[in-house]
Amino acid sequence: MAENCQSVQFLDETHVPDSERRALVAVQPQGFFIRHPPKPHDLEENLTDEACLFQTIHMGAAIVDPVRWKLVIDGLVERPFVIDFQQLRQMPCKKIVSFHECYGSPLVAPTKNVWRIGNVEWTGVVFRDLLEIARPHPEAHFVWSDGLDSGAFGGVAADRYRKDLPIDKALSPEVLVAYEMNGKPLGKERGGPVRLVVPGWFGTNSTKWLCRLSLQDRRAQGPFTTIFYNELDPEDTTGLRKRPVWKVQPNAMIVRPRPGETFLCPCDVDVWGRAWGAEEIVRVEVTVDGGDTWEEANLLPREMFEWQLFTLRVISPRGRRVIQARATDRLGAQQALRQSRNHVPTVETQVE
């Protein structure tokens, strides 16, 4: 890491706080924007093209000058520093294929499948390499990430988008400070020129238009950690305690057959789809009788954090078929059957 140390500017008392925000040209257009993804039966490709990947922008899209862009690493570190875009790109890079999922609206109860999901390849610098330069103090337990966007969301104003990560996750080798997606530079709506990428965790944690990473001894205070993106903890028997929207629970979606598809009897029906979660999915079961019986599907193992293909050929008798798929991860967590944002998908077909 010595070579990388020589290319960064270590900070001293002359550093002007928030000077990294001078790279912001404008927030345009302002306000909330969402681009919904195609329906699951249209997400046929293993790698999701930019045009088919959802977009969620909370307060507006930041227009950033890449020449003036800088990333500050500070807080509870021995050697705070700043790095510019050219220096970042000169560091050793890594490619990670990962599912990318939006949690859904934090303004409504999470009781239905959202499936704002895709599978993409990110390129960037492993965040742990940057932390090695900064040398975190032992009392640093969280990393706060700041974006250059600002404005209002859900009637709440914020001078910046700020999230946090536990230090253990931040030190994981898959967490990237990324500047490319699917081999192309990050565009404005995708959080370019640089964003944080946290594979296995919901997209709200992958701060766009990244400008600052600060190590702290506590969680960040701000609307996107205290008001938005918290959910009831299913392990709390009182039903009162909340937890941050961090890890993605096990999930599955059916790509084939399509909803409403009709088959002629007798026939074999090929069922296939995708499964994903923070932990590797180790089993997907499929039912064609509405849950009376389940059969284990063939499942590809996970190499990185990509979604996993499952396939199963079933013999389907005549009549209306209710097909569902249920994923279980390596820790034993399983999709709920109903009333949960990741409950099992249902596709109805007809065999005539």
Automatic annotation (TrEMBL):
Domain named Moybdenum cofactor oxidoreductase dimerisation is located at: 245-331
| UniProt domain Oxidoreductase molybdopterin-binding: residue ranges | 59-223
Task: Provide the cofactor list for this protein.
Answer: Mo-molybdopterin
Q: Which UniProt keywords apply?
A: Metal-binding, Molybdenum, Oxidoreductase
| Record flagged with keyword Metal-binding | yes
GO biological-process terms attached to the record: sulfur compound metabolic process
Q: Which PANTHER family match?
A: SULFITE OXIDASE, MITOCHONDRIAL, SULFITE REDUCTASE
Q: What is this protein called?
A: Sulfite reductase
